[in-house]
Amino acid sequence: MHISILIPARNEARSIGHTVGAVRARQPAGVPIEIIVVDDDSTDTTALVAAGAGAKVVSAPGSGGNPGAARNRGAAAATGELLVFLDADCVPRSGWLEAHVAAHAAGNRIVGGALGLPPGLPWSARCDYYASSYHVHPGLRAGRIQNHTPANLSVRREVLEASGGFTEEFPVADGHEELAWQGQAARRGVPLYFEPAALADHYNRPGLGNLFRRHYRWGYSALEAKYTSAVSRGAPLYRFPFVALFTAYPLALLESGYIMATWILAGRPQALLFFPLILVARLAYATAFVTGGWKWLRRKRVSGPRPRWR
Q: Judging by DSSP bridges, how do beta strands 110-116 and 143-145 pair with one another?
């Protein structure tokens, strides 16, 4: 099986060489791979560093930073039967690619890998990890899931093509760009499978500003993406978008408690130290959820046929 590893990167000159080098070092013997870095309209030397590390570089000029479009551009340039998406700030551990391949050999056609917490991260970056990776950490069991981040994800080429690819329209293109095609695949009888052994460390960026901006960005397009794709954890709530808007803040409190519970069950009590900041991050998400969701509802009037909920 020929494998294409696709890494979208925007202004990642400091880290992209390390990521590409780690992927090359973890190439299984006898398995042909290609590494494609999609330069997502960077203003630094990301493309030069990636090429110097041995990656094929594909440019996405004029995008202004569009993760959905960058991933589609990489998939279009790829030659592999299996497409493996990896974020530029994720570094695979030993056995990462073998675990993806084994899960596909077992009959799965979309496989989500785990995101690990690397040692030595600044405290604000660890907080960001605990606030965002509670559904994809390596302590979870393997099994079917509703959706999965494209930060560490593999899919058979024909499945992605048949499901329409990543969303390129903003604001969904930057935060929930994977939900539409994953929802289409699920409705066609192609579920997602979570494989914790396909593990990559996520080097979350430090800084509280980054933490809150990320959650605000995710929240802004969440209602639109989850309603129209009809796939997400807690999906029944999004059948009723106005109810979802009015419950956003109470749910932020419940979600914060849920995040703490997942980490306690995973044997990571350190997460409790970050509870106040995680709560603020979830409130930032809720604020954006209401703001972006209300604008979308006013614009669309939720017109036309409703999504096909399973």
A: unpaired
